[in-house]
Amino acid sequence: MSALKIFRSGVRAAVLIAAGLIAVTPVAPAHAQAPSAWPSKTVRLVVGLPPGSGSDLVARALAQRLTMQWGQSVVVENRPGANTIVANELVARASPDGHTLLFGLDIGFTVNPHLYAKLPYDPVKDFAPITLITSFATLLVTTPSLAANNVAELIALAKAQPGKISYGSIGSGSQMHLLSAMLGNKAGIELLHVPYKGIPQMTTAVLTGEVQLTWVGVNTSKPLVQAGRLKALGFGGTKRAAMMPEVPTFAELGYPDVAMSVWYGLLAPAGTPRPLVERIHADVLKILQDPEFRDREMLARGYEPSGLGLDEFAALIARESAAAAVMVKISGARVE
């Protein structure tokens, strides 16, 4: 099947998924706890990555503010493993009473459904989207020793040396893998995929020249680029990054399909009463809009606060799931 047909199929799927996400938004049962009486105990905020990761730091800052706002402890519970599947399954099976929430990552809802033959959770039916916390794209960076100072030179070099230029990722189906596969498909080049156990190992590999390329966040890569330890070639977002506006997007360079966002979002188990979901959204939005939190906890870390509404967040997940389906198909990634 051609990429165009896959894309058209993905768009149709996006419409259906969006409708499903919105349609399953729960109605409060008669016995549900009133939003005004909630929370009545500690709230767990489950994160699918280990302590110290970008999502963990933002989640902990948010939990601290929510603790003050709600008058109950909000504790971050790290449950890393299997592309966030461990954390997602835990929350999907939790009681829908608002006391267990997921600080979710994009991969669990956009990539995993197309990467895994079977998931222990349904990304549509098992969750109630609350709000998007932030989203960002990544940069394609290379070691200074590689004889390519821009994307055109990289493509020319890769065509002259098929399969010789390597890139690091954090595994099959990861964003780094999918973006590189899409670039290879659109530019007609062959790159060598080298997976690593985690982002620290992958970053070290490109810094030491063990691999030549990888994709990293702007907030991580900017100091390394400024120090001359990495070269930034292109940005995988729909618009240039405010922190590094000199780096062109792949769309500007003629490769609009080489784009994928990373996002952090808040979700509850399906069946959580809609009025409670709306209250949580409103409370989180207040925090995201607070100048001190916005500047100190978000912008200072390179994250632009969002705060999308329930249905808008559901629609975003659907759109990005459709786009990820195309990229997974092109990459050939599959986990049985």
Name a few traits of the molecule.
single chain; 10 strands; D-Maltodextrin-Binding Protein, domain 2; 336 residues; alpha/beta; 2 domains; 5-stranded mixed beta sheet; 42% helix
List the helices and strands and how they pair.
Elements: H1 3-23, E1 43-47, H2 54-70, E2 74-78, H3 85-92, E3 100-105, H4 107-110, H5 112-115, E4 127-136, E5 138-142, H6 151-160, E6 166-169, H7 175-187, E7 192-195, H8 199-208, E8 213-217, H9 218-226, E9 231-235, E10 262-269, H10 274-289, H11 291-298, H12 310-331
Parallel strand pairs: 1-2, 1-3, 6-7
Antiparallel strand pairs: 3-10, 4-10, 5-8, 5-9
Tell me the structural class. alpha/beta
Say what oligomer this is.
single chain
Report the portion of residues in β strands: 15-25%
Q: Tally the helices: what do you get?
A: 12
Largest sheet: 5 strands, mixed
CATH architecture of the largest domain: 3-Layer(aba) Sandwich
Instruction: Tell me the number of strands.
Output: 10
Topology-level CATH name of the largest domain: D-Maltodextrin-Binding Protein, domain 2
CATH top level of the largest domain?
Answer: Alpha Beta
Q: Stretches where pLDDT falls below 50 for ≥5 residues?
A: 1-19, 21-31
Query: How do the SSEs run, as a string of H and E?
Result: HEHEHEHHEEHEHEHEHEEHHH
**Helicity, as a percent range:** 40-55%
How many domains, in number, for the residues? 2
Gyration radius (Cα, Å) is: 20 Å
Shape: globular
Task: Output mean pLDDT.
Answer: 89
The CATH homology group name of the largest domain = Bordetella uptake gene, domain 1
